[in-house]
Protein backbone atom coordinates (compact mmCIF):
# COMPACT_ATOMS: atom_id res chain seq x y z
CA UNK A 1 0.00 0.00 0.00
CA UNK A 2 1.32 3.43 -0.92
CA UNK A 3 1.44 5.77 2.06
CA UNK A 4 1.28 9.47 1.21
CA UNK A 5 3.92 11.07 3.38
CA UNK A 6 4.49 14.64 4.50
CA UNK A 7 8.18 15.41 4.97
CA UNK A 8 8.42 18.24 7.51
CA UNK A 9 11.80 19.91 7.25
CA UNK A 10 12.21 19.23 3.53
CA UNK A 11 15.30 20.71 1.88
CA UNK A 12 16.82 20.84 -1.60
CA UNK A 13 20.23 19.99 -0.07
CA UNK A 14 21.16 16.47 -1.30
CA UNK A 15 23.40 15.84 1.72
CA UNK A 16 20.49 16.10 4.20
CA UNK A 17 18.47 13.12 5.42
CA UNK A 18 15.16 14.81 4.58
CA UNK A 19 16.27 14.97 0.93
CA UNK A 20 17.46 11.36 0.94
CA UNK A 21 14.14 10.29 2.48
CA UNK A 22 12.23 12.00 -0.36
CA UNK A 23 14.27 10.02 -2.89
CA UNK A 24 13.72 6.74 -1.07
CA UNK A 25 9.99 7.34 -0.64
CA UNK A 26 9.78 7.87 -4.41
CA UNK A 27 11.85 4.79 -5.06
CA UNK A 28 9.53 2.70 -2.88
CA UNK A 29 6.39 4.13 -4.52
CA UNK A 30 5.18 6.37 -1.70
CA UNK A 31 3.98 9.81 -2.83
CA UNK A 32 5.37 12.61 -0.69
CA UNK A 33 4.66 16.25 0.06
CA UNK A 34 7.78 18.26 0.97
CA UNK A 35 7.10 21.02 3.50
CA UNK A 36 9.62 23.35 5.07
CA UNK A 37 11.16 26.77 5.33
CA UNK A 38 13.75 26.15 2.62
CA UNK A 39 12.82 27.20 -0.91
CA UNK A 40 13.39 24.92 -3.85
CA UNK A 41 12.45 21.52 -5.20
CA UNK A 42 12.95 17.95 -4.09
CA UNK A 43 12.77 15.32 -6.80
CA UNK A 44 10.62 17.55 -9.00
CA UNK A 45 8.25 18.65 -6.23
CA UNK A 46 8.15 22.21 -4.92
CA UNK A 47 8.85 22.54 -1.22
CA UNK A 48 5.69 24.03 0.25
CA UNK A 49 5.60 26.62 2.99
CA UNK A 50 3.35 25.89 5.96
CA UNK A 51 0.73 28.25 4.55
CA UNK A 52 0.79 26.58 1.11
CA UNK A 53 0.55 23.14 2.69
CA UNK A 54 -2.36 24.23 4.88
CA UNK A 55 -4.22 25.46 1.79
CA UNK A 56 -3.54 22.33 -0.27
CA UNK A 57 -3.90 19.53 2.28
CA UNK A 58 -6.98 18.43 4.12
CA UNK A 59 -7.59 16.18 7.08
CA UNK A 60 -7.04 12.58 6.02
CA UNK A 61 -4.87 13.41 2.95
CA UNK A 62 -1.66 12.29 4.65
CA UNK A 63 -0.95 8.78 5.96
CA UNK A 64 2.45 9.47 7.54
CA UNK A 65 4.32 12.55 8.73
CA UNK A 66 8.09 12.12 8.93
CA UNK A 67 9.88 14.79 10.96
CA UNK A 68 13.23 16.36 10.15
CA UNK A 69 12.92 19.40 12.44
CA UNK A 70 14.28 19.60 15.97
CA UNK A 71 11.68 19.72 18.77
CA UNK A 72 11.96 23.51 19.28
CA UNK A 73 11.22 24.10 15.57
CA UNK A 74 8.27 21.67 15.63
CA UNK A 75 6.19 23.68 18.09
CA UNK A 76 4.67 26.09 15.54
CA UNK A 77 3.58 23.07 13.44
CA UNK A 78 1.65 21.14 16.14
CA UNK A 79 -1.87 22.27 15.21
CA UNK A 80 -1.24 21.89 11.48
CA UNK A 81 0.20 18.36 11.84
CA UNK A 82 -2.47 17.13 14.23
CA UNK A 83 -5.17 18.72 12.08
CA UNK A 84 -4.08 16.55 9.16
CA UNK A 85 -5.04 13.50 11.24
CA UNK A 86 -2.25 11.29 9.91
CA UNK A 87 -2.19 7.61 10.83
CA UNK A 88 1.34 8.01 12.22
CA UNK A 89 4.17 10.41 12.92
CA UNK A 90 7.76 9.24 12.60
CA UNK A 91 10.24 11.00 14.87
CA UNK A 92 13.59 10.55 13.13
CA UNK A 93 16.77 10.64 15.26
CA UNK A 94 17.15 14.10 16.80
CA UNK A 95 13.46 14.98 16.42
CA UNK A 96 12.10 13.07 19.42
CA UNK A 97 9.47 15.21 21.14
CA UNK A 98 7.44 13.84 24.09
CA UNK A 99 5.00 16.80 24.01
CA UNK A 100 4.02 16.30 20.37
CA UNK A 101 4.03 12.51 20.77
CA UNK A 102 1.61 12.69 23.73
CA UNK A 103 -0.73 15.07 21.90
CA UNK A 104 -0.69 12.83 18.82
CA UNK A 105 -1.31 9.65 20.83
CA UNK A 106 -4.23 11.34 22.63
CA UNK A 107 -5.82 11.73 19.18
CA UNK A 108 -5.19 8.11 18.21
CA UNK A 109 -2.17 8.85 16.00
CA UNK A 110 0.59 6.25 16.13
CA UNK A 111 4.01 7.67 17.01
CA UNK A 112 7.26 5.96 16.10
CA UNK A 113 10.80 6.89 17.11
CA UNK A 114 12.75 5.46 14.20
CA UNK A 115 14.63 6.31 11.03
CA UNK A 116 12.44 6.58 7.94
CA UNK A 117 15.34 5.37 5.75
CA UNK A 118 15.84 2.23 7.83
CA UNK A 119 12.09 1.58 7.95
CA UNK A 120 11.88 1.76 4.16
CA UNK A 121 14.93 -0.45 3.60
CA UNK A 122 13.74 -3.12 6.03
CA UNK A 123 10.11 -3.26 4.86
CA UNK A 124 8.74 -1.75 8.08
CA UNK A 125 7.30 1.35 6.41
From TrEMBL:
Ranges for the CoA-binding domain? Answer: 3-120
Q: Which domain of life is it from?
A: Bacteria
Q: Which InterPro entries match?
A: CoA-bd, NAD(P)-bd_dom_sf
SUPFAM superfamilies, from UniProt? NAD(P)-binding Rossmann-fold domains (SSF51735)
Which protein is depicted? CoA-binding domain-containing protein
* Organism (species): Thermonema lapsum
